[in-house]
Amino acid sequence: MIENWIAALNSLLRDTGLSQKNANLLETIIVLLVIFLLSFLADKIAKKILISSLKNFVRKSRNKWDDILLSYKFFHRLAHIAPALVVYYTIDYAFDLPNLVGVIKTASVLYIILISLLVIDSFLSALHSIYMTFPISKEKPIKGYVQLVKIAMYLFGIIVMISILSGTPALKLLAGLGALAAVLLLVFKDTILGLVASIQVSANNMVKPGDWITMPSRNADGTVLEITLNTVKVQNWDKTIITFPTYSLVTEAFNNWKGMEESGGRRIKRSVNIDMRSVKFMDPPLKEKLRKIQLIKDYIAQREEEIDRFNQERKVDPSMPVNGRRMTNLGIFRKYIEAYLKQHPRVNTDLTFLIRHLQPSETGLPIEIYIFSRDQEWAKYEAVQADIFDHILASIPYFELRVFQNPTGDDFKAL
What global pTM score does this model have? Predict the structure, then answer.
């Protein structure tokens, strides 16, 4: 049908008195204009009519997936294939030159392949965004895998395009890549290591976006923003953003604080060094003074009764304090800290709760407080910790204890 139309056009041009050569040239120009017009119309129909109809459908649809596809220009890129198809299937009628027609067809095919790669890229990106709407995406990020598929897709597309340009079968090109394996391994070293690391990180649930991690070797201390095939992006608490290779998560040590956040508490682990020279047995005046402390008055009475009964049963000589059992100001102080922290509203007593001695040293006897704050937010956590130790430090003198402190200029001046 098209051949008949072109033959009629050529005959019409010859009837105007043009020579065969000029008639053929004018025929070619007219056919090219028609092809251009058809391509233009195909582009406008695809973009204006089809895309506009799809937009209206998407707006009315309750499904969000089509909105995501639209936002990534999936349909827009797909529409670019229409004019290339028109050129590919009609260019034979414009020229009687096989070599020129072959070049134009090859260019059309390459263009279609390139657009197809971009369409698939948009589709994969849209699929990833759709996946991110599901709760499982918080536990199992797949961005690294999506990037890997894209890299493989583009590599395959480039091989196909080279195959078309060179006339060499794609399988032969792939076989020839074996000679370039060493170069490819060198070029894509970080990508390969990142792929292996991404699989390990995902399979072992080591870290995911939103987790708080610390990695001293990379000066990272903050929230993970993104994990890709090649890099991990972390926003530190000072609002700086640091990136490092994904394989660092496997090859280097880091802390993931997610367990702490899920536990319902944040650890407080700090010591107060007591001057050992201030530790002593409780005498009656100190005992009477400490009975006025409501948190431990019942404990002191109970403990005193228990010790007296023990000493009487064993007929202990009370003239020497080291005989039998005695209360010490340090022991009562530890019990006071325990009672104070158990009634503190911001201390989580369901988690590890420990008040203990550490190894004495030249800087005194450390009394370690090992507890968990209910508040995990940094500022609130620090406020709770400061409030607790403010109170503990202020309470120590009432037990006739002293905090160990290296001598300062004022201490020597007082002497």
Answer: 0.53
